[in-house]
Write a structure and sequence with these properties.
79% helix; mainly alpha; elongated; 5 helices; 2 domains
Length: 131
């Protein structure tokens, strides 16, 4: 328990002193600060999560930059940025669309089941009259 507290204290001191791993794309302290604002102080953020977030952000930045680089123009403008980031900005809408589509499909399934029952009843009535 004491070792864990000492490690956490050392990590916090390292972050405050700006000592960052040179292999990470962004200053670790800044990434942790942003995470801390969203997560809150009630939870401990493990070191591997801090590093994984930093690496993921760097990878995402490279992916977006490559997409912006596909611009046919001599400079990269805000339209290129918006085009490159649109898939990330619309993810929440895509999830909502998925939920809406599932509800619609389930409703269609219920309607089709009802139609099948009605057709079976209708044709069974015709068969009885024919005999």
């Amino acid at each position: 328990m004491v070792d864990e507290e000492q490690t956490q204290d050392q990590t916090t001191k390292d972050e405050m002193n700006g000592e960052d791993d040179e292999q990470l794309p962004f200053p670790r302290a800044r990434v942790v600060k942003i995470m801390r604002e969203a997560i809150g102080n009630q939870k401990q953020i493990r070191s591997e999560v801090k590093d994984a977030m930093n690496i993921w952000l760097g990878t995402t930045l490279k992916r977006i930059a490559r997409e912006m680089g596909n611009s046919p123009y001599g400079s990269v403008g805000i339209a290129d940025f918006q085009r490159a980031t649109k898939p990330y900005d619309t993810m929440e809408e895509i999830v909502k669309d998925e939920e809406r589509l599932l509800v619609t499909v389930n409703k269609l399934k219920l309607d089709s089941d009802h139609i099948i029952r009605e057709l079976e009843r209708f044709f069974s009535t015709l068969k009885v009259k024919k005999e």
